[in-house]
Amino acid sequence: MSSHGKPYASSCDENREPILAVIRPLFASARHLLEIGSGTGQHAVFFAAAMPHLTWQTSDVAEHLPGIRAWLEETALPNLPPPLTLDVNGVWPAGPFDAIFSANTAHIMSAAEVAVLFRGVGAVLAPGGYFALYGPFNEGGHYTSDSNRRFDAALKARDPRMGLRDLDDLRTFAARHDLALIDNHAMPVNNRTLVWQRNAAGVSPAGV
Fold first, then answer.
1. Which residue spans traverse the membrane (predicted)?
2. Class (C level, CATH) for 10-198
3. Fewest beta carbons less than 10 Å away: which of 36, 79, 107, 149?
């Protein structure tokens, strides 16, 4: 917790500028974004201030909403509506949203929940819309760094259902719901920002 009583994560301050550099041009023409797993709410207030054209809709499981509200109420930005309760296994907001963002969520969900996450994104993201997913990921069945290997072990020790997700598995989940990986940005401390796009024609791209 911060000294002001709001939830605080130092990682949000550390990664927000690199993430913004990726998502600002990506979401330049978006108007209505859903953030899945807003956590402390820090990312939301920073990104909403940087992109005033964009209504940034926060969401998370119910236990995190008071902390998110505290950040939103302090900043009082006009493009930050009250947070929504969203458990990926439950009822999703109706949408459509023309952009979706989520940071550091896939590795704290089970693999089955990540599959449900992509199903939900495919259902509420407008055709042609972008889904930016930030975090650490494996590639080709391998860790991309020793620090990611240690992080994965720590996650599994906390809960065996948690763990780093492999890009190949994410592609499989995404393809079922008209989502294709169009960009893979290297980020600091061995993270990535994966950019998915819902196929504008409403069908999965050939070869995916």
1. none
2. alpha beta
3. 149
| Token representation of residue 133 | 């997913």
Separation between Cα atoms, residue 61 and residue 75, nearest integer Å: 22
Eight-state DSSP code of residue 81: P
Q: In a 3-state reduction of DSSP, which class is residue 207?
A: coil
Among residues 131, 102, 174, 104, which one has the least CA distance to residue 27? 131
Q: What is the pTM of this model?
A: 0.93
- Could you read off the pLDDT of 123-163 as tens digits, one per residue? 999 999 999 999 999 999 999 999 999 999 999 999 999 99
Nearest 10 degrees: Cα torsion 184, 195, 172, 86: 140
Closest C-alpha to 103, from 73, 80, 72, 136: 136
Domain coordinates in residue numbering, the chain? 10-198
| pLDDT tens digits, 55-68 | 999 999 999 999 99
Tokens of 127: 């055709």
Residue 34 is classified by DSSP as E
